[in-house]
Structures are given as C-alpha cells and as structure tokens.
Amino acid sequence: MTVRDTTAPHPTRRLVLATGAAALAAPGLARAQARFPDRPIQLVVPWPAGGSADVQLRSIGDIAARALGQPVVIQNRPGAGGTLGPLSVAQQARPDGHTLTQMHLSVLRRPWMMRTPGWDPVADFTHIIGMTGWLFGCAVKADSRFRTWQDMIAFARANPGRLTFTTSGIGTTNHLAMESIQEKDGVQLTHVPYRGSNEAVTAVLGGQVDMVCDSSTWAPFVENNQMRALSVWTAERVPRFATVPTLKELGYDLVVTSPYGVSGPKGMDEGVVRVLHDVMRDALMTPENAEVRNRFDMPLVYQDTQTYRAFIAERVEYEKAMVRRLNLSLDG
Asked: Which ranges of the sequence are coiled-coil (predicted)?
C-alpha cells in the first residue's frame, strides 16, 4: 500500500476543508474534518484472506490509500456467516471514519433469524457506498461422478442426505439459494458450512465435501481443469464458462449476485462519509479494480450513498419477509 507524503495539502483534504468551512455553525467539527484521515483506516473483511471479496476490497484499499494519504489496512475477521466482522465494527468502532467494514446481505438477514435480533442493519451502521456483487455457482472436483447438474440432482434424489455441499455459512445468500433448490426438486443434501469460499474450495479439492456452492473462488480451478462447474447463478451465461448453464436454464427462477458495499458504525459525520464515498467510487472505476472484478466475474453494482441507503432499507424488509416465509432460525 502506498503512503503519500502528507506535508503538502492533498486535494481530498482541501475538499474536506471546503465542506467544513461551509458549516459555519460548527467550526469545531470543521477542524475535526480537516484532519481526516489522520491515521491508517482499517477495513474489516468478514471472510478469510484470498476470496474474491477480500481481493477486490484489498484493491479498493490500495487505490484509495493513494488519494487519502493514509494506508487502508485490511483486517480479515471471519465467522458467524460473515457477520462477526461487521458486528464488531458496529459495536466497538468509533464513528470517526477510520474503521469500516464490508456490508453484505447476510448482515441484513441474520438478525431476523434470531429470537432476539442482535443488531439493526439500518440503524446500527452508516452505509457509505454500494460496489459490486459476486459470481455464484456450484462446482465439483474434476474427477467427480457428476458431469452435469442433472447428474447431481439424480444422485441426490436417489440418495437422500448423502451428497454434501459447502457454502460460506448458515443463512448466507448462497446457502438460502441451495435451500430453495432442494425445496423445488424435493431432494435432501447435507450442508457443510465453512468460513469462506476459499476454505470451501480447498475442502472440495481435498475430497472432504462433494460440491462447493459459493462465490467464484472456484473459477481458476475450473479453468485449469481441477474442478468442473455445474451451474452459474447469473441472469445470463458467463462468457468464460460458456458451456455452464444458469439456474434459470436449469428450471429455477433464481438469479443470485448478492450486491455488497462498504459501511461504518452509526453516527459518522456526513462530510467524512462524502470523502470516503468519493475515493472509493473513484477506486472502483479504475481499470486496476475493473481487472480484479473481471478476474472473478464480479458485476459492477455501484450505488452512491443515498441510493445505497435506500437499497439497504428496502432489502432489510425483503430479508425479514423471506426469513419468516422459510421459517429460518439460528436458535434451534
């Protein structure tokens, strides 16, 4: 990560100074904003290192650091279906803009799976920017007995509970998609959750689990013939996996991309939010970050702050309703 010489005024700091100067009623706040950021920024990624979101957000951090004049340090904090990291930011971080987290759909869904919700996805965070989503799909080891999706379903139908699949956690978007698939086909698979897609792929390659159904960490292994993709979950086929059918082609009314963004703890100053939004938006639009997203077939799903906040509020209501409809619970 690049650390800029901070002895000379930086354009980002001049922007904050101008924003603060306009708020004549709050000169103390203006002085505080003028110093942002005054130390490294920590970006909590709630998955193990090496997965697609981790690589994409590391790229965002590297590029944003050049504009901010401070490093953006990635901290991997996996656990609890990808919600441990965001929850730690909501509950422990100061709202000064120096601690941020990836915001994804499991954070919006999981509290409603508890008898007593542990957090409010709208009120307990300051949502900053929407960025991208994932390419999801299912893949097996190259020497698997399953050459097609239909082979896998036929085996599952004849052998209830015997076929194992892995996702990045109970209650994650990809886990719920697989539950919907099993419900539609009347089959029973055994779910073996891991903390992240890279660990899930390792488990499949090692023969501990039959199939990974997760984000595209499996893609390079499909390309080098160590794995075989059985489905992708996009609206259209993915060009580099042109022979792999979508779920819609396989008869499921499902398109799953699970858009995500970046948020901070509640109570952040809107001037600081503007600075962070602008540098992350600019980083997102660079050819450097586009190359990372293209590597993992991650769609661009940019949303500015107000649009992203509206999306979060609307999606929370959708997730609540889905949890109730499927009778999902983490309480046993």
From this structure: none
Closest CA to 215 of 191, 237, 236, 199: 199
d(CA 19, CA 317): 34
Q: Is the pLDDT of residue 25 over 80?
A: no
Query: What's the CA gap between 323 and 332, in Å, rounded?
Result: 14
Q: Structural domains in the chain?
A: 11-133+259-326 (3.40.190.150), 136-241 (3.40.190.10)
* CA–CA gap between residue 2 and residue 221 (Å, rounded): 31
Q: What is the pLDDT of residues 62-86, one digit of tens each?
A: 999 999 999 999 999 999 989 999 9
Q: What is the enclosing helix (H) or strand (E) of 245?
A: none
In contact, 108 and 315? CB cutoff 8 Å: yes
Could you give the 3-state DSSP secondary structure of residue 232? strand
Residue 229: band (very low, low, confident or very high) from pLDDT cuts 50, 70, 90? very high
**Which helix (H) or strand (E) element contains residue 126?**
strand 125-132
Rounded distance between C-alpha atoms, residue 182 and residue 152, angstroms: 12
